[in-house]
């Protein structure tokens, strides 16, 4: 059955891909096995290092015991004096946790430290008695049950008096946790484990999860315990924790114990991953090259018709961009191409005319909506201004009367000091209330015409509105006014910016301890500008939030406590005055918000 050329090319490429993929998978398997062998060699080398470390520490303990058994206090079993000798042995070697002096029957005479009931107390009298009769160092099985926290082994050495007759036994309790801590410092791939087992295949030290496995069999309970000499030097097996590892095994002759270093076989898979990726990329590149080359040969006969088909689909999708001139290989196809190009030109001209008309209508609609919004805003502001002016007028008259009568009463000479003090407070608070009313009148007018403004006046007017709230929150407010430059700005708009800065600073320090609630307002002059900064001692702005501070509707406050418009409106106000607004971190750990306006 006849098939399209393109389908035939794809079929041949699929067969070739199957062959290449099979070869790559086979090569990956061989590489993985080689990496596992490398891991076994690495684990064997590391096990030799562990054996050297283990035997070196045991040699150190044995040397200390060899020196100590010649001490007369130990030879004569003097309990009180022997305690000091035993403690010196414990303090000299961090691996030695405790030391015991016992008589020939194995009965303890003195301990360096009180014995742990789960470890040292498990040391039997018979074993100590046997160790006293030995002329060489004897090492006990692991002490401490699997469920206990501490595990140790005991190195015992018989003591003879000056005449050479046996007199007792010195036992050094070697802390296995010290070895486990040292094992964790050996650089190995993640998931690697160091295990030391005794001749009964019982785990006596382990670098991972020692509290779970120390004291348990290293093999399955149904398996026959293997002597250290029976274990192969390297193998691959699943450990007690269910992880498959490549193990290197070496014998600690002093035990005899078996030191095993296991490196997860997953490491081999990770090491082969880059090689497999490289092989896959080469395979994909080769397949792509063959497929592209084959498709290029087959496409030569179909290119002209496909080009016309794509052009028709593009026009149907609404793309009316001009067609580039090209030779399709025949006069008929070239004429069809030119006719299609003319049709696209006519359609594009009609589309441009419609788009221009729609753009004009949209512009007029947006302008109309903008004018309506401005009119509504002006009417609203005018209503607010009338309301504020009326309220201020009604309040100002009684305040002036209060202020006047207070001043008249103060002129009387026969008033007590307490009354004069109260009248002074009435006059001062009435003056403050009048200043607040004047500030409300100015704020309510909402003038949009710039006027000469001094930053200190803006700060004063805002504090008149906010001072009481700041004092109620126990916030320390400091003012550093060093600006003398006059700027041209809308006073009420600058009030709004400073008020936003101040409210944000109050919220930043509100949850701090009272002694740390501090806000600083600072004004200063540049060469041709005036600058205002509001600094707080709060937690500061996280670096991730800094790029979004002045975006509309961005807020870090809980839902319902902030709109996210304060800083964005402030940004619009300052930029409309040709100024600069920004934020930086405070040396005290908080935030500094500032703006800078050009001088008038």
Strands, helices and their partners?
Elements: H1 5-68, H2 72-75, H3 79-92, E1 96-102, E2 108-111, H4 125-133, E3 138-139, E4 152-160, E5 166-175, H5 176-184, E6 193-197, E7 203-206, H6 210-213, E8 234-238, E9 244-252, E10 257-264, H7 265-299, H8 303-316, H9 331-410, H10 417-445, E11 451-454, H11 455-472, E12 476-481, E13 486-489, H12 491-509, E14 518-525, E15 529-536, H13 566-576, E16 580-585, E17 591-598
Parallel strand pairs: 12-14
Antiparallel strand pairs: 1-2, 1-5, 3-4, 4-5, 6-7, 6-10, 8-9, 9-10, 11-13, 14-15, 15-17, 16-17
Helix pairs in contact: 1-7, 8-9, 9-10, 10-11, 11-12, 12-13
Overall helicity: 40-55%
Question: How would you classify the helix and strand content by structural class?
Answer: alpha+beta
**Main sheet: strand order:** 2-1-5-4-3
Shape: flat
Q: How many domains? A: 3
Name a few traits of the molecule:
Beta-Lactamase; Heat Shock Protein 90; 3 domains; Helix Hairpins; single chain; five-stranded antiparallel sheet; flat; 52% helix; 600 residues; alpha+beta; 17 strands
Please tell me about this protein's structure.
The protein is an alpha+beta fold. It has 3 domains: about 1-300, PAS domain (Beta-Lactamase, 2-Layer Sandwich); about 340-445, Helix Hairpins (Orthogonal Bundle); about 450-600, Histidine kinase-like ATPase, C-terminal domain (Heat Shock Protein 90). It contains 13 helices and 17 strands. The chain has a 5-stranded antiparallel beta sheet with strand order 2-1-5-4-3. A 5-stranded antiparallel beta sheet has the order 7-6-10-9-8. A hairpin with a 5-residue loop joins strand 6 and strand 7. The chain is flat, with a radius of gyration of 45 Å. The mean pLDDT is about 80.
